[in-house]
Amino acid sequence: MVTDDILEKYDMTVGIECHVQLATKSKLFSGADNDERDKSPNSVVSPIDYALPGMLPVLNRGAVDLAIKAGKALNSKVAHISRFDRKHYFYPDLPKGYQTTQMYLPIIGAGVINVPLEDGGSIEVRINHAHMEEDAGKLTHYGSFSLVDLNRAGTPLIEIVSEPDIHSALQAKAYATELYHLMTYAGVTRGDLFHGNMRFDVNVSAALKGADKLGTRAEVKNLNSFRSVERAADYEFRRQIEILESGEKVVQETRGWDDNKQKTTSQRSKEDAQDYRYMPDADIPPIVLSDEEILAIQSDVPRLSSEWRKILQRLDLNYLQIETLLDAEFEYHGKISFLESIEKAMDDIKKAKFIANWNVNMFIPVLRDETFVRTGIDYLALESAIYDLIEQAKLSSTNAKTLFNELIKFDELPNIEDYATERGFIQNSDIDAISGIIDEVLSDISSVQAVADFKNGNEKVIGFLVGQVMKKSGGKANPGLVQKIIREKIA
């Protein structure tokens, strides 16, 4: 049993390798369909992808362009010359007997990304490099036998290799999340985690605090969710500490993550580079790029999540609010732009913050409700109109939510203020009318004790008096104005 006191004796160190499937139409070296989602097993394959005799690869230029865009998102330098190598290993989902990858001259060099954390802080994670390669197939295990699906074989990837700059499970999760945002916003990948468009290999080691070298690492392979990255890192750290505390040594190995059991299991010993017998791939010419070519391709990269985050931070939004907006922006890409609606309102910070909060707390949850049917109305114009009515003290926050939930079901928006008036949502801010109602409430025998208590310093009873006025006005009186007038009358 690893107690908190024992955990405090050790430092966790994590490095992450992230496989990012590139969003090309065809595979890296063949014309086969690159979108294997919902396809029958072994239905989108090419003889080139499993290297039948006489088959020669032809490099997909679109994949190169996406790798160049990824370089910008990683704040990395793109190499002028890169080349492909063969990595030899024998596994049922790799019919070629080798993987075409980049070992010696990768296309993307060193970089760094700033990773925001839930506690409001941030860390910098250095990128060692990112290289292009082809994906292998997929094995599905059924007890005593396994089936192989080669639909994924030949899919273009970049593998992003971080330095060991991560020192907690939460930091590992935050890094994986930020990498996902950067790659999806740059248009590099489709970002479908369920179908493995991004997969994370988490290398974890434990060492006593103050040790002059890192502990022996274990690699947990093929994690496809941020939660599993966090939980696998935490489990593996604790597992290694238990081994070290018992006086034994951690073995360098590759492990798998069992999401049902929430634990890692040994798969095979971890190979070193020499075990793969890397050699240059003579069938594929080097990639040669000029500065002008790189800049032209990178100039087409949309605004990245890191840039949007800086805009949103001006509104004092917390980490979870910003993450919700970034996730939803990508989720509804091309349909609704939450971020652009906020940016358009940035001249009025108060309005921009209202729209941001409204999107997080009201609009996005409605869109994600499976029972909600989208219509063609301008939702963002509706939000802006509701804000204006609230600012004019015509609409309470409660009525604003009710109004929004009614109007988002319309096929066409009416005049919003007229509709709100007809439905009885508009507040009465007529001082004379409200003052008359307040006088009636204050003179009622049921209010005598509350008035006396307020005069004796009991502020809480103001809520009772405001409630009585609201009840008498049919809920139409402006509650803020009601409270102000009550205080003036009984001060």
How many β strands by DSSP?
Answer: 15
Coarse shape: elongated
Radius of gyration: 30 Å
Low-confidence stretches: none
Mean pLDDT: 91
The number of distinct structural domains comes to 2
Percent strand: 15-25%
**In DSSP terms, counting alpha (H) and pi (I) runs of 4 or more, how many helices?**
16
Spatial arrangement of strands, main beta sheet: 5-6-9-1-10-11-12-13
Q: Tell me the distance between the termini.
A: 63 Å
Largest sheet: 8 strands, mixed
Helical fraction equals: 25-40%
Content-based structural category: alpha+beta
Topology:
Blueprint: H1 4-7, E1 10-21, H2 61-73, E2 81-82, E3 85-88, E4 98-101, E5 111-116, E6 122-134, E7 138-142, E8 145-149, E9 156-162, H3 169-185, E10 198-208, E11 218-223, H4 226-245, E12 253-258, E13 263-269, E14 279-280, E15 287-288, H5 291-298, H6 305-313, H7 319-331, H8 338-344, H9 349-367, H10 379-391, H11 397-407, H12 416-422, H13 431-443, H14 448-455, H15 462-472, H16 479-490
Helix pairs in contact: 3-4, 7-9, 8-9, 10-11, 13-15, 13-16, 15-16
Textual characterization of the structure:
- Helix 3 (169-185) runs antiparallel to helix 4 (226-245), helix 13 (431-443) packs across helix 16 (479-490) and helix 15 (462-472) packs across helix 16 (479-490).
- The chain has helices spanning 4-7, 61-73, 169-185, 226-245, 291-298, 305-313, 319-331, 338-344, 349-367, 379-391, 397-407, 416-422, 431-443, 448-455, 462-472, 479-490, and strands spanning 10-21, 81-82, 85-88, 98-101, 111-116, 122-134, 138-142, 145-149, 156-162, 198-208, 218-223, 253-258, 263-269, 279-280, 287-288.
- It has 491 residues and is an alpha+beta fold.
- The model has no long low-confidence stretch (mean pLDDT 91).
- It starts with a helix and ends with a helix.
- 38% of the residues lie in helices and 19% in strands.
- Strand 12 and strand 13 (263-269) form a beta hairpin.
- It folds into two domains: 4-292, no CATH class; 431-490, Arc Repressor Mutant, subunit A (Orthogonal Bundle).
- Strands 5-6-9-1-10-11-12-13 form an eight-stranded mixed sheet.
